[in-house]
Amino acid sequence: MAGRLRELLQDLPPENRATLQYLLRHLRRIVEVEQDNKMTPGNLGIVFGPTLLRPRPTEATVSLSSLVDYPHQARVVETLIAHYGLIFEEEPEDVPGGQVRVVAGLNRGPAPRALVSAGWSGGASEASFKQRTDGGGA
Prior knowledge:
- Keywords: GTPase activation.
- GO terms for molecular function: GTPase activator activity.
- With about 140 residues, this protein is mostly helical.
- It is about 55% helix and about 5% strand.
- A hairpin with a 5-residue loop joins strand 1 (about 90-95) and strand 2 (about 100-105).
């Protein structure tokens, strides 16, 4: 399933893919401390699945098909989080001297447009971005 999701995500516009990757990277960080916050990939899938993967459009406001889609949406987001490294595979890059360097996929392109408009350029650390956007953390 993770391999198929990787293929499907290649069809997204680069900006959308970068934004999704950034969000999923953050959700991975949340899972790293699940002992403290109880947020497993499954729990995050339940929370974010309906937001990230909208149900098929219908004429009804809440249709039976959209209710049936919720578990699938949660499972897809859970898989995206749990298999982040495989889906957004870090690709080896050749460097002079025959050595191979791993390049994280998130650093290959510009920051998502929404982050750039908020003042994050990708060059500054996340802590300094948070400090600028939160008013100095006070």
